[in-house]
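Crash report, auto-generated. Payload:
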Amino acid sequence: MASDSTGHIVKSFEQELNRLRALLTEMGGLVESEVALACQAVLQRDVDLAARVVESDPKVDAIEHEVEQFVIRLLALRQPMAQDLRLIVASLKMTGDLERIGDYAANVAKRSLVLEQFSLPFSLTGLAHMSRLVQEHLKMVIDAIGENDADKAVEVWRSDESVDEIYNALFRELITYMMEDPRNITPCTHLLFIAKNLERIGDHATNVAETVYYAVKGEPLQGIRPKGDASPYAVVRAARE
Amino acid sequence: MASDSTGHIVKSFEQELNRLRALLTEMGGLVESEVALACQAVLQRDVDLAARVVESDPKVDAIEHEVEQFVIRLLALRQPMAQDLRLIVASLKMTGDLERIGDYAANVAKRSLVLEQFSLPFSLTGLAHMSRLVQEHLKMVIDAIGENDADKAVEVWRSDESVDEIYNALFRELITYMMEDPRNITPCTHLLFIAKNLERIGDHATNVAETVYYAVKGEPLQGIRPKGDASPYAVVRAARE
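Recovered output after restart:
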């Protein structure tokens, strides 16, 4: 806190920091619901939900811009120090990650419109599981922002690996469906990108967790960050090879 | 410039801003060569180049961290205003985008190791074209950072659409190869993700262009940002359907 300021200043500066935190959690809540709607759109073949995601994306960009303007004003007028300064700088990083998460949700929604045109001869259990996990992590990290909770951030950070594991299994599964029947190739290609988008959303949630931790503790999250996406190395051979 | 400071302070503050710009262009140059090496690794089937990309990624993260520390110190000690403050805030956004570009290059490099294990019955002309364009835009936007050149930034911003067009054509082309022969499915899947990574790199170069413009002009780039990636909507039907 800006303890070198007068009581009155401190109070209104704290109000401004709370306003900043409120903007971040509002943005977080918005992308959280975008991700939820996008996943529903895919799993329940619901075109209307997809449209709602694509429509709401400009709102996310608007809040990101508002945060940037607010931060620049805070930096210019308040000359914050120490933890306040870290929170303000961190908020710029977090809005960047949240904005990307919104973009990935919009991309998932768009692809659900294609999937809707295909009958899939297989279930989407793996994808459903992955989307549940990613949404849990996203919710947790947004709570961590609002509550300034470094422990919650560490929890999210640790749990990203499980998402990567499901993604790797899903990647191989979808490739085998493509090999079984060329009619699966287009829908499975979009499902591959949908799964990749969810994996990226989990990854950005992990970035936010690292940023929250840094903002609260003033030091980077220790240890090597869990990196479980082995799919870039995945080799699946066709039966006839 | 911090005109309200004494001559001496201004001079050394300017030196610090130049140091910041130098860090950004150093980081930019590093990811630029990562992207170049990753594209070569794919197009020339060169495993050693791929390894070099993956190895150099921690260097990029290190510079990003250095920039953040430097920015926090500048904000705390200098209380910059106006354009200086915008440059400092913008540098945080730019390092975020540059770091992502480095990650995409590493992902391309990893996938080139898989491709190396397959003989491709088709040429990679489209991908080669796309990688040339993306590298041009990346080089241009990094120059724009170093030269504080808003016009160059606008040029990059405008040219992103051409990358998206090639990507869309490539997306459909690769899907047809998969349909022709299941043995193409695994390599083409990785090529799809490589192409997507290049498209994302172009997109992040466009983000950087927007940030450079804002930092120099103090207002957002006007007009709707070119958005040419229609591939999420792409439907390619198998012959037997």
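Post-recovery validation: Chain A touches chain B through 44 residues (CB under 8 Å).
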